[in-house]
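Tutorial handout. Part one gives the primary structure; part two gives the three-dimensional structure as tokens.
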Amino acid sequence: MATIEDGNKPLAWLTGLCSQNVTKEKIMRKIVSFVHVSLDGFVSSTAEGPAGLEWISISPDLFEYVEQRIQQTDTALYGRNTYQMMESYWPTAADKPDASPHDHAHSRWYKSAHKVVLSKTLVPKNHPDTQIISSNLSDEISKLKHSAGSEILLFGSPSATHALMAENLIDEYWLFVNPILLGQGIPLFKNIKDRTSLRLVKSQVFPSGVVCLQYEVKRNQ
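Part two.
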């Protein structure tokens, strides 16, 4: 069968190369930071544990909005503290007599999702269904981004977020800006070495006053 050539390169070869490029683009996954933040930029107050998050405004319409996005994904990324909080609640959340529709939906998703945790202390054998990244962060995240699957949702986890920011590994931010000024606490943005341009993709205002801002990190082409 004859082939049409461009210089010394057969058209079939060029077509194959294009297909490979498209495949690579499809495989490349994004890390999306999913986080509540105060208007002055904090993700937690100075209180310890869950009490540091009691200022967050939640409502059924916000839960529904978030859950629609979460259900489109198959991978969750956490820091150790957030992961342990999730593990203590979501596997059995739907079994409680007062479980809400959100509890049922997110519990099902959590149990089926691939979970990745950034931690130097967790022991893999004690968490057989969870991938633990304890070193070589940039290389391991690169492998994860090039593996099969959906985008990767990073839930809260300020320490993990700061580690990823330092390596410029976060591709998108879903910021749920709460109408409150905390004055002090754990900041969302930290360890950013270079100026980073963002593109506003979408915004959503909730009756509670929470504003969801979806930003995409502009990468140099």
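Part three, for discussion. The radius of gyration is 20 Å. DSSP finds six helices and twelve strands in the chain.
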